[in-house]
Structures are given as structure tokens and as C-alpha cells.
Write a structure and sequence with these properties.
Blueprint: E1 2-3, H1 8-19, H2 21-36, E2 48-57, E3 65-66, H3 68-87, H4 96-130, E4 142-143, E5 150-153, E6 160-172, E7 178-186, H5 195-206, E8 211-213, H6 221-229, E9 234-235
Parallel strand pairs: 1-2, 2-8, 8-9
Antiparallel strand pairs: 2-6, 3-4, 5-6, 6-7
Helix pairs in contact: 3-4
Length: 256
């Protein structure tokens, strides 16, 4: 499920959550951990938890994604902008509050550009490591507005837009209301590889490893093999790709 671009109030709320994410997560973890200390209050090993993800559009435009060469120019421009801001050569002179705001914004711009350059290099290295010799090299791009955002395919229109992948895990107690047990934000365009980090997080909070209910986008055969080794029961639909002939004899197919 997708969300459109947030309005002014939603942008302020998202900004507050982003700035205070670590503190909010710490408080929620503390509350959840204390609740899990009471036997049977939050989760039991025999209960199910459900994990799913949604793509949330980032507060960045497609044009903010630039390749390494363009990012180098942005770094130079950001450095010059910060230097001019620190020189305080405005006419007429600004108030101290306005000067501080301009300096802060100039430093933040420079930090975002530097972070985007680092992200572009990391993406390029990861892509080169998996590129086949017959495939042409493609430039990796990162956003100077939100370096953590990625171009993701959005449903239902199927287009691409800057977004984040937000994963939720939900469970319930003995007949009680549903509780959000885990939240994690990733930069992956799909849900692969999200089951195990969330499993570790939820297990640390509630002290048990309940049965997991996920859709087929979250798992592959390696995940099922690992789940079998670690005695983790996973309930999921069978992906269409597994119906091919070379998967028919795999002993882990359809098992949790």
C-alpha cells in the first residue's frame, strides 16, 4: 500500500519522527520490554505474528538523484555556499537569528551532499560486485535531498518514485488488542532479507519467537532452510517462481 505526498502537518510530523527516531524507538522498546516481562501479557510462542511492508514516498524529488560526477559538482557548490554564508557579506546585515539559520541550512546541505556521495559510491560498488560481464555498467545515483531514499516501484500505478520501505510486525496477546511489536525502515526496493532482522528485534523485545506469517515477497528458499534449522515456523504463500521445474524436488519447498 502506498501513500501520497504528505501535506504540511504530515511533513512536520514525519520531520519530528525522523529527527527523534532513536529516542522514540528507545522509549517504545523499553515499554514493550517491560510489558513482555509479564508472562502471557504480550506474546506466547504458540501465537502468530504478521509481518508486512509498505512503501512510503520520501520528501524528495526524482531530479534530486544525481550520479557521482554531478555530486562532485554539488560538493563544490555546497562548500562555496557555506564559505559565503560564513563570510556574512549580506546587504543589508541580517539579524543574528537569521545568520544562524542560514549557517545551519548551509551546513546541513553540505552534509546531505557528502552523504549522497558516499551512498552513490556504496551503491556503485555493490552493483559492480554483482554485475555480469555481459551487462553494461550503469551509474548509481543518490538524492541530495534525502540520501537514504531510493527509487522504488510503487503500487498500484507501477511507477517509480523516491521512497522508503517501512516494515511492521503485528501480534496480539490472549484475546487482547493487536500490538505493533516491531518497526524497521529500510532502503531496499523489495521485502527480501527483512524477516531475520525483524525476528531478532521482536525476539529481544518479547522474549519468545512466535510463529511468523508473511507473504511470499519476504522469503526465499534460503530463508526457509534457515527457518528449518532454527526451528522457526513460517507460514507463507508459495511464490509463482517456485512453481518452475527446478524447484519441484527441493525438500524445503512449502515448509516452514
Amino acid at each position: 500500500m502506498d501513500r501520497g505526498r504528505p501535506d504540511g502537518l504530515a511533513r512536520q510530523t514525519l520531520g519530528f519522527l525522523a529527527r527523534n527516531r532513536d529516542a522514540i524507538v528507545e522509549v517504545l522498546c523499553d515499554v514493550t520490554t517491560k510489558a513482555s516481562c509479564m508472562p502471557g501479557l504480550l506474546m506466547l510462542p504458540s501465537q502468530h505474528i504478521t509481518q508486512d511492508g509498505m512503501k512510503v514516498m520520501a520528501n524528495a524529488s526524482t531530479s534530486s538523484f544525481r550520479a557521482e560526477q554531478a555530486l562532485q559538482q554539488c560538493r563544490e557548490q555546497a562548500a562555496l555556499h557555506l564559505k559565503a554564508t560564513l563570510a556574512r557579506m549580506e546587504e543589508p546585515p541580517l539579524s543574528e537569528r537569521s545568520r544562524s539559520a542560514r549557517e545551519r541550512h548551509a551546513r546541513q546541505l553540505q552534509q546531505r551532499v557528502e552523504q549522497a556521495s558516499q551512498v552513490a559510491r556504496e551503491l556503485a560498488a555493490a552493483r559492480e560486485a554483482t554485475r555480469k560481464p555481459s551487462e553494461p555498467a550503469r551509474a548509481s545515483r543518490a538524492s541530495t535531498t534525502d540520501p537514504e531514499a531510493r527509487m522504488m516501484k510503487m503500487a498500484p500505478h507501477g511507477g517509480f518514485a523516491p521512497a522508503h520501505n517501512v516494515q511492521f510486525t503485528v501480534g496480539s496477546g490472549r484475546g487482547g488488542p493487536a500490538a505493533i511489536l516491531g518497526v524497521q525502515v529500510t532502503s531496499r526496493g523489495n521485502d527480501r532479507g527483512s524477516v531475520w532482522p525483524m525476528r531478532d528485534r521482536v525476539s529481544a523485545y518479547v522474549g519468545v519467537t512466535p510463529i511468523r506469517l508473511v507473504d511470499s515477497d519476504h522469503i526465499d528458499l534460503d530463508d526457509l532452510r534457515r527457518a528449518r534449522r532454527e526451528h522457526l515456523k513460517v507460514i507463507s504463500t508459495v511464490p509463482q517462481t517456485w512453481r518452475r521445474s527446478h524447484y519441484q524436488d527441493d525438500t524445503t519447498r512449502g515448509r516452514g
